[in-house]
Give the backbone structure.
Amino acid sequence: MSINLEELRNEWADRSRRLDERLRLSERLLRDEWIERQRERVWKFGPFGTFSVTVWVATTVLLGHFLGTHASQPALFVSALVLNIWVIATGVAGVRQQQRLRSLNFGLPILELQAQVESLRMARVRSFNRAFLTGQIVWWIPFFVVIFAGAFGVNLYLSPQFRAFAAWNIAGGIAFIPLAVWVSRRYGERISRSYFARHIADSIAGRDIAAAREYLEKLKRFAENEG
Amino acid sequence: MNSADEARFLALLQEHRAILYKVAFGYCRNPEDRDDLVQEMTTQLWRSFCRYDGRVKFSTWAYRVAMNVAISHFRGEGRRIRNTMPLEELAYEHSSDDPLAGEAGDNIGMLRRLIDGLDELNRALVLLYLEGHTSKEISEIVGISPGNVTTRMNRVKSELQRGFARLDNSQETAP
């Protein structure tokens, strides 16, 4: 038996017509309340998400307050300033990415839109890696110094154990970066079956960027009629 | 979007609703995932409608949106796109015995198996071809030249032809 696509095109069209007849949209879709719900959702889940924005603004305000009240203590002021700059920079990067994601025009031709999605994916991974790596500088000493000073009124810089604390934290922070990259590359597949953990492992190991770059090449070859 | 645009959108969606289902069928075998995908496409159409400028036919635009959502979903970006705009309960109703599914032994069933083996871009070409689109229309949706569409379709047809022969042989030799 010889079958070819031309013959099946008619059969497909016939079944497609039958699908049209069977398929029907629920009348619920046509109700105004659906429209209203969509509007609410668009507003509620605007760029960066309400929860994230709330946490981000609260953190920035608290750090701003800390800066104001500790302006006369340079060591604490600089620690809080570094931390606040990191919080603001990562927040701005997050908002910009959400805006870019939301501004994607899905009505563009497939190759064009997919290339934009892929470029955005690369930018997102790079931004995550930047935040993760620079986070090693601020998550350790400045974070603890500000938390202790803000919450308990204790200036860790004046503590006799501070040098040991700082040395261990710096060593931990520095060692963590290559260790995280090595663990992600070596055990990324086994770290977890969860999407989130895999996503982090792939980002750190650079697999996401490599995959995105490869896909952009594939789109280019497809457009140029190669491969 | 004002109420006149909303009414226009719903009328157009009603008229072209089958496009979403057909595209979803091309990229998703699991019925539940397929329903999610159709809802995701509808949400994206709704969000993108304000940018529809009428330069291409609504059906062409709807195919672009539906296929872009399906391919993004297929490639794993769907989760992130969904997270920026949760799905709504749209309640599409359709029969479970889908005409496009085909039976394991019939021609359409075999074709579906072969289409499943294609990558997402060639799959788009074949689905559009089977829906009766011309090379020019396919080129507008995919974003490549009509000549490129023809060349690629010839390659895919040959590939499918070989696949049919393989499936045919395996069925004949099966006990």
